[in-house]
Amino acid sequence: MMKVVKGKKKASVLLALTLAGTMLISACGSNNETGNKATGGEATSGKPVTLKVEVFDRGNSPSGSTITNNYLTNYVQDNFGKPNNIDVQFVPIPRSEEVQKLNVLMASGSDVPDIVFTYDSGTFYRYAQQGGLTDLGELLDQHGPNLKKFLGEDTLAYGNYQGQQFALPAKRAHLGKYSSFVRQDWLDKLGLPVPQTTDELYTTLKAFKEKDPGQTGGKVIPLGMALASAQYEPLLWSFIQPVTEEQRYTLTQQLGSNDFPILLPGFKDGLQFMNKLYNEGLMSKDFSLDEDKKKLNEDAAKGLVGFFSEDDMNPFYPDGLYSTLQANIPDAKLSSVDVYTDSEGKHPKPEYAPVGLYLMVPKSSKNAVEAIKYLDWMASENNLLNMQNGVEGENYTLQDGIPVAKADAPDDVKNRVYNWGDMAIISNGKQLGDTDRNVEAYVLGMPEQFQEETRNALTISRSDTIKPVLFDHPIEAQAKYGSALRDKFNEIVVKATMVKPDQFESTFESIMKDYMANGGQAILDERTKAYEAMK
Amino acid sequence: MNTRVYLRRYWQLYMLLILPVAYFLVFKYGPMYGIIIAFKDFNFFQGINGSEWIGLDAFKEVFAMSDFYKTLRNTLMLNFLDLLFSFPAPLFLAIMLYELKTVWFKKISQTILYIPHFISWVIIGGIVYQVFGTQSGMINNFVTSLGFEAIPFLTDKNDWLITYLIVGVWQSAGWGTIIYLAALTGINRELFEAADVDGAGRLRKIWSITLPSLKPTIVTLLIINVGNMIAIGFERPYIIGNTAVRDYSDVLSTFVYRIGIESGQYTLATVVGLFQAVVGLVFVLGANYLSKKLADQSII
């Protein structure tokens, strides 16, 4: 008998605990709700509409604020929600698993936010193809004049799926991708000029290896390489020969969000050059293991790398590659250079599509109008500027119309806009009217001593660029095989580069055959057909 | 004893069973419903029921993919090599530990051997790159300082196989000893004493007493391992593998990840999963049947 009583007691304690727990949790929830309702209800009468908006959670909210309750969410609620009697709620999604989590939300149907987004064009196409999205074309005309003007035709075209506006892509502020960098102090030490062409680069790399100007004790890596687009794309694209429009449309292969030159004339020559550099010991030996560029960054920061290509601004961030390099080797100097040259003497390199996030409204959403109104509000007046930069005079000052963050602002003021990139979803980067000013905003955001080189790098990354090829409808084979072929492309680069020179031909043959058989041919066929239909 | 009396006496035991049975129903049998995705053109927004039936089209598509056969071959190859090298390792280790007479040394060794099992593969991957890297790996730093050519442990596919096996043994062998050690504690000590009296040496005792007593355990584990021939963990090949050795490191689980999670082709991924399950079942039953015939040991 005693035992039973004891058990009951335990059970009731447990029950009470769980109850208390759920009550606590629900209490928190309802607290928020009433709080929001109170603010929303004051402005206009009637029950406010709840608009749910996805937000990336990077787990970096400063103390005192959360991802769903911070300066920017309040800014949105006060300036957009209250006046329109809309209660804007933010639904956090962990950045690292955005697509998986979004898939689950979309499949659930009922619980999905009214505005969702992804960087992955394949995911967008899949949703559109399976009929899960709202056509926003008419709504945009009716409720989003400012937004339509802000995004512009070029950008909106990327959200068009077979004549229907299933996504509103965010507008990208700066389309440049890559620049190259050389150790100026090594060149000076050896009395060498800055290399201007691919041939001169080869001579320079040889000199770096033989004379080891950095006194690395034989550890010198003349050309820093990684298995990442920023490192091999500038090299490979510069070997592509001039092509006709038809070739550009049919022979390019888009895998994921990037265009790949795999079938374009000259691709093989590019690989052969990489093969030569690798086999002569001029390139990072373990580049095939370095998909996240960590090793390259580490080697470059240690002062072992003579020349490398990177995303244009990457080396210059505070505590980034360049500042670590200078901390290790005080007289090290990096110059931004544009070296890889094609047969016409140009320095071609790909540029970004003019889009960022793909913003979508799920078909199950009942608040598509409010969703467009919200995005339109963001595009009008100074709202975007305020969301991206905070309060003038407190967070930033204007220099020639370019907002410059105040370095001496107290932390709690700085923290106001800690996730502006994730909240100001209609734009990728700061929008100040034209590209030059957008770029200058990036420059002024860098540490002062690096601003000049940053400006150079951003100029290089914008010159002689190759625009991505856009069809009027998505190529289905690309959606299907894209990510598998993306891996295969890396395999091609790795194998063709690392094989002994006398086996290059046969290796290249066999991996290309494998590539074509696993979807490459299907993409080629479909693109050829699509091009003919477009003419 | 009639049923009512029996139930009245033992109902608590049946109650205890409810939770585990519910667990299997909810988490192991329930999801099997999803298998029908393999026969449907799965559409996200229409759900499993709303999607259209496509018969065996998805199977035909998978069996026409060259990558499917490559990953199937690699899965079998890696598992077979594992069976050859990683399977006996814990057995040897367990016997060695059993032979140790110093208690504190034995305990310390066991703890050290177990640790790798608790390290996440992601971290092991990091360690592997630090140790086996060509340009700045620990081993190759030593090799090149002696004036030899660096060994591409991670980027040459044959060398990579060795790395893969070594890392696997290092990670799992210690943990694998637990089952053997448990079985070893069941051996009657008198057998050893009798053997001592008969003048048997250490090796003789291991061969004639220890190993025979471990036979049922070995056979059970062997059957389970053979049953898993077609299944392969995702982390080890995915993390230890890299682009340069894709010819060997690409296995069914990474293949499913690529077409299912990355490309969103759930139907094809389900087909591969179902294929693995069916072949796995055949392997288990086959191994069980053989061992019943040959060694008179079986688990079913």
From TrEMBL, chain A:
Q: Which SUPFAM superfamilies match?
A: Periplasmic binding protein-like II
The record's InterPro entries line, in alphabetical order, gives: Bact_solute-bd_prot1, SBP
User: Does the keyword section mention Disulfide bond?
Assistant: no
Q: Which stretch is the leader sequence?
A: 1-27
- Give the UniProt keywords, A-Z: Cell membrane, Lipoprotein, Membrane, Palmitate, Signal
**Which PANTHER family does its entry note?**
ARABINOSE-BINDING PROTEIN-RELATED, POLYGALACTURONAN_RHAMNOGALACTURONAN-BINDING PROTEIN YTCQ
- This chain's protein is named Putative aldouronate transport system substrate-binding protein
Source organism (scientific name): Paenibacillus algorifonticola
Lineage, uppermost ranks:
Bacteria, Bacillati, Bacillota, Bacilli, Bacillales
UniProtKB/TrEMBL annotation, chain B:
Parts of the chain that traverse the membrane: 12-39, 76-100, 112-132, 161-183, 214-234, 266-290
- Keyword rRNA-binding in annotation: no
Any one cellular-component term (Gene Ontology):
plasma membrane
Which Pfam families does this entry report, sorted A to Z? BPD_transp_1 (PF00528)
Where does this one sit in the cell? Cell membrane
Q: Where is the ABC transmembrane type-1 domain?
A: 72-287
Assign the protein's first listed, main location to one coarse class: membrane
Keyword annotations of the record:
Cell membrane, Membrane, Transmembrane, Transmembrane helix, Transport
Q: InterPro entries from the entry? A: MetI-like (IPR000515), MetI-like_sf (IPR035906), UgpAE/MalFG_permease (IPR050809)
**Annotated family:** Belongs to the binding-protein-dependent transport system permease family.
**Protein name (database record):** Putative aldouronate transport system permease protein
Species this protein is from: Paenibacillus algorifonticola
